């Protein structure tokens, strides 16, 4: 699923001399603005694709955008400038709309992991206490009880389980 969101970029318009400045200078100027905009964005993002994209025409759709490279930079800028000069009404200075892609930073969550809520921690503590009451030969301290309440391990074979995992396993079976 794809969604499109505009990220506020401080000073999105910058000057660029298409005759003197190179592709690297252009990309550096874009990158400076994008990095700062993404840093201030409320959702943490990553940029798996660090390319800069340009619309081949003014009415082109997003899927038609072309990635700028050192090889196609000069021809694409020249084409955009030619199209700008063909306009019949004055639309202000020559501007090019650029795009960069970003994705939400995914949180790595292990399978079976749940967010700790008060009821879940209480349930885990009760399960651990019940297990330990059934095993009077085991002596544990407060640290074990706290650790066992907060991090219950999933174990499919009870032979290899530690005490904490055994309590969680026993609860799932019954």
Q: Please state the average pLDDT score.
A: 70
Residue runs with pLDDT of under 50 for 5 or more positions: 152-174
Shape: rod-shaped
Number of helices in the DSSP assignment: 5
What would you say this structure looks like, in words?
- The protein is built from 5 helices and 5 strands; from the N terminus they run αβββαββααα.
- It has 174 residues and is mainly α.
- It folds into 2 domains: 23-104, no CATH class; 118-173, no CATH class.
- Strands 3-2-4 form a 3-stranded antiparallel beta sheet.
- The protein is rod-shaped and about 90 Å long.
Please write out the topology.
Layout: H1 23-40, E1 45-46, E2 52-54, E3 66-67, H2 73-86, E4 98-100, E5 103-104, H3 118-134, H4 142-150, H5 163-173
Feature tags:
174 residues; mainly alpha; 2 domains; three-stranded antiparallel β-sheet; two-stranded antiparallel ribbon; 5 strands; 40% helix; 7% strand; rod-shaped; disordered C terminus
């Amino acid at each position: 699923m794809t969604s499109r969101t505009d990220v506020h970029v401080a000073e999105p318009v910058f000057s660029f001399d298409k005759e003197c400045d190179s592709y690297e200078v252009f990309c550096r100027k874009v990158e400076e603005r994008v990095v700062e905009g993404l840093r201030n964005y409320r959702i943490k993002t990553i940029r798996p694709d660090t390319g800069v994209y340009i619309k081949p025409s003014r009415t082109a759709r997003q899927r038609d955008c072309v990635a700028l490279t050192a090889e196609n930079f000069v021809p694409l800028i020249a084409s955009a400038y030619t199209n700008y000069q063909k306009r019949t009404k004055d639309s202000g200075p020559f501007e090019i709309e650029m795009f960069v892609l970003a994705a939400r930073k995914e949180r790595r969550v292990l399978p079976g992991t749940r967010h700790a809520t008060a009821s879940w921690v209480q349930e885990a503590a009760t399960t651990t206490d019940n297990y330990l009451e059934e095993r009077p030969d085991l002596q544990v301290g407060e640290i074990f009880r706290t650790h066992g309440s907060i991090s219950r391990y999933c174990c499919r074979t009870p032979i290899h389980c530690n005490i904490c995992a055994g309590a969680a396993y026993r609860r799932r079976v019954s």
